[in-house]
Amino acid sequence: MTQDAELFDVVVVGGGPSGATAAHDLAQLGRNVLLLDRAGRIKPCGGAIPPRLIRDFDIPDHLLVARINCARMVSPSDQQVDMPIDGGFVGMVDRAEFDEWLRCRAAEAGARRRTGLFKRFDRDDRGTTFVTYEERAADGEMVERFVRTRALIGADGALSAVAKQCLPGADRLPYVFAYHEIVRAPAAQSFDGARCDVYYRGTVSPDFYGWVFPHGDTVSVGTGSAHKGFSLRGSVAELRQASGLGEVDTIRREGAPIPLRPLPRWDDGHSVLLAGDAAGVVAPASGEGIYYAMIGGRLAAQSIDMFLETGNARALRTARKRFMKMHGMVFRILGIMQWYWYSNDRRRERFVSICRDRDVQKLTWDAYMNKELVRAKPIAHVRIFFKNLGHMAGLAWARLHPS
User: Fold this and answer.
1) Is 386 exposed, middle or buried (0-12, 13-18, 19+ CB in 10 A)?
2) Phi/psi at 43 (5° precision)
3) CB of 259 within 8 A of CB of 273?
4) pLDDT tens digits, residue range 135-182?
5) Which residues contact 225 (CB under 8 A, 6 or more apart)?
């Protein structure tokens, strides 16, 4: 490593929605940015994005491969509850196309793109940060490269290599391992390409859920679990059969860990900041991550820009503080929901029953679409609270007085 290596204001490791957003925003602010991304990596993801994301991040219509106007909740006993979206829709994207578009947008804003595998970062006695990565040479051999940077963003996903180095214990964050198969959408008219199906069933997942999400010409069929002995491939195979997709062509298979809660700290107090899955910002219960990754990337960019302007490392802390102020309560509520309702099939059955309630449906969609807790209708919240108490009391009664 030498002092004449390329120098950047910021190196962003990871070109998913969070890293690409951070690189784009920093480049627009006039910062000299390197976006370092692995080749050919696609995260397993249902691909749902809310209108709030489409609006806040200027997502063009052509990236939406489907518009969902209803979700069907399926219970262990095959009780099916439709939750229609009144006056709106949920957009669906194909992550291969969507993520690449975000990376291209970052490059158009001025970020430099490079394909390589992050290995480590080091600091010399003057505090200069060196980022070491490997890239493939023309002869196919992997060659070690390095650059200098004033700041580093780790947006390299769950089990982040950047997080592991800068925050001891970050690699021990609990996670669900998700797996899905992208399959060809059937031509049969019986398949509804505007409806998502969500399966709450212990055989599909003992602690999460399974999904069938239309993507236009394709469908994402997947599930997840934190139980290491649970067969995700077997579960998805059964889910495909149950949804009539057992015989259609499989296009690709993908698996990856999904973090269960935000890390207690996102920066190293010097010049490194985490974003997206690397920071643990995936919503409990739903597993939703694209919106939270992108807002996390935007907040990371703002904090890094402040750090570069002032030289004060305390600026790095503002990303997590602002994120938790905006979304911390939602994450806590969803965490409690996952812990309680996903624990066994009796509770899952009750949970799906609750979804029939129009108050529940309205507030659920309002909160999802706008990414904030809905306070406009306090009476509806009170009704839902007492209905939940009724369901929980019914469960307690059933345990004390089994048939």
Assistant:
1) exposed
2) -75, 135
3) no
4) 988 888 889 999 999 999 999 998 899 999 989 888 777 888 999 999
5) 176, 177, 205, 206, 207, 208, 232, 235
> Any bridge partners for residue 91, and if so which?
49, 67
Angle at 119 between CA 118 and CA 121, to 5 degrees: 95
What is the average per-residue pLDDT within 124-143? Answer: 87
Q: Is residue 211 helix, strand or coil? A: strand
- For residue 387, what pLDDT is reported? 52
Q: Among positive and negative, which fits the CA dihedral 130, 132, 136, 138? A: positive
Q: What pLDDT digit, counting tens, does each position of 179-215 carry?
A: 999 999 988 766 788 899 999 999 999 999 999 999 9
Element (H, E) at 122: strand 117-123
Band of pLDDT at residue 2, cut at 50, 70 and 90: low
Query: H or E segment at 352?
Result: helix 345-354
Three-class SS state of 361: helix
Tell me which residue of 145, 171, 147 sits closest to 158, measured CA to CA.
Answer: 171
CA-based nearest residue to 18, from 261, 279, 260, 262: 279
Q: Tokens in use for 325?
A: 């102020």
